[in-house]
Batch of 3 targets.
Target 1
Amino acid sequence: MTAVTVYSTGRGCVRCTLTCRKLSEAGIPFRVVDLTTQADSRTRKHLTDDLGYSEAPVVIVDDQPDQHWAGFRPDLIDRLAAGIPHTGRDESR
């Protein structure tokens, strides 16, 4: 089963909360990494410099690291739950 990592800016992030709720509802296992307390500078650098994201949450499909996006994207979560891949970076950026 597909699992994801959600890089979050904490409990106060509405988009992060909505993303986690939608993942739960879709039955997709996930883990949360709080960027304010748990992530090291290497992780932050990867998300911002390598992947180009500047907003949370950043969602990365664990077994397909090229499949990732930022923000609350219920459409992409639905696609993931249906087994339809989203390849590459978030096209809405």
Note: The chain is about 35% helix and 20% strand.
Target 2
Amino acid sequence: MIGTNIDMDFDNQIRERAFEKGADFYGVADLASARDFIQEQGGKEVASYPRAISIGIRLMDSIVDQLPQRNEKGVAVNYLHHGYTIINKRLDLLASSLSSLIQREGFRALPLPASERYDDERICALLSHKLAAHLAGCGWIGKSCLLINPQAGPRVRWVTILTDAPLITGSPLKESCGDCTDCIDICPVSAFTGEPFSEEDPREVRYDAAKCEEYLNSGEEWSVCGMCVYICPHGLRHK
């Protein structure tokens, strides 16, 4: 979908800069359909932005494929470092750079941290990066509550820039998990219900985040899981 007063040169500039700075995936979401949900989670200021730029960096398959051996400290520490810390820093730096470019053109831009919890009780951020990526057409929300990208499955980390810049927006992709229940079956704490994603439903209909939290906190300081990331056929198929 194309909004009004699109500056195609500026739109292309933002997209090209994202890929030059290391993005593997890029899209722009029209947030109108999720406005109430966004305001309930992040507040009026977050909900005041009409669009969101969604940027993804793919995880290293060589790291994700070791997750069945995640009880080995070396495997877990490498996943935490290169699968979370480093990629999240890369995403945050990329979002900051693009936000400055957007601001210089006279538009509002609010980069949101790639991985910073805003609400400990609800275990969530100011805005769901997965929801933004879904609305941008970068994938669909799977039964694991992860964003499933057609090329990389859930093996992607995402960051979001809220903006009022008149950019070309994408459209949500159709859910393509079908009858697959691999992520549900492999979860060590049965955190997923198997219910398909719906913007109208709260996350709890599909996923019990507290179960994941308790499972990770019951292990060592370096404990990880990520089995739903590892097992998804859409990620395995396109390695």
Note: Strands lie at 25-30, 51-58, 109-112, 140-141, 147-148, 156-163.
Target 3
Amino acid sequence: MKQRRRIYYTETQKALMWARWRQGESLQHIAQLFDRNHSSIQGILVRTGGIQPPPRHRSRLALTLAEREEISRAVVSGISIRSIATRLGRAASTISRELRRNGGIHCYRAHQADQLAWDRALRPKTCKLVRNQDLAQVVAAKLRLQWSPEQIAGWIKHAYAVNKDYQVSHETIYRSLYVQARGALKKELLEHLRRERAMRRSRYHTQKTDDHGRIRETVPISERPATAEDRAVPGHWEGDMLCGSGGSQIVTLVERQTRYLMLVKIGSKDSETVVNALIKHACKLPQELYKSLTWDRGPEMAQHKRFTVATDVKVYFCDPHHPWQRGSNENTNGLLRQYLPKGTDLSVHSQAKLNAIARRLNERPRKTLNFDTPAERFHHAVASTG
């Protein structure tokens, strides 16, 4: 596989990243704008803890690139420093210092000098918690008590109402934690926040918008037929994705009545790929043994309507954060970890290998089946439909 060329983002592209991040978009959505993986965007944002640095601008007193190009042409022509200064309306000491800092008369290059001046001008504003170490110690002590930055800022406002030097906003505390270059609060204090993250998220990050993890036109599990709920008849399945390292995943399908397991190899976890694999797999089963499919609310099933149209299999979705509503599938996924441990690359397994693993599990007696095997129960169901 040919490695993609490394991309160097422009300031305009970075500004777009930050704008989308503030709006609450996921890293993956932002990365798709540049045809990259989310880690490419995360590397940019995590440098400052997910907090956009303030825009930089040049001082009105600084030499411009055009002036530096004029200096460069003048020294090549042998014009004296005083003459250059007069021509530019600058002090002779300014021109002399400019040349001395950037290689001297014989090595001066305008673009190189301009970039070095821009780099040297980077002087971050000193954080209030750096200037006031006593205040920083108060904040750190409260963080260790699991107080939130907002609670700390509010408490300080009342406790030190008469001392303006002790006033600090919760945003300053967050910035001191996530932007370690400030040197005010130790990174270890992050573990005392309620949600330990590598970088700050937008306040809009968890809002459920139409393009932020929400699957449209879902049919809730409460509308699933009673025969599926009480496992009275076979043909109702539960599905999920089993995750491995490097973003590798496989589809796991468990029949509710018999606990029969089937594994499906997929090339990627996007909805189109997953649904195509499920449609192809559905053709392997008699229609009488594939009446419904219950899934969680993962984005891989965003194209569930296309799956239903192609297979005539209805898809029901669990309530948010209710994995036990697919209990058979959750339990079987746990059993699968004996053969497919966490942290291993699942993409290395062929469909034949996955079939062999499923067969091993299906031929193990299950207490819930009165020590019959899922294979025995499922084959009996197949015979009954024939």
Note: The longest helix spans residues 11-22.
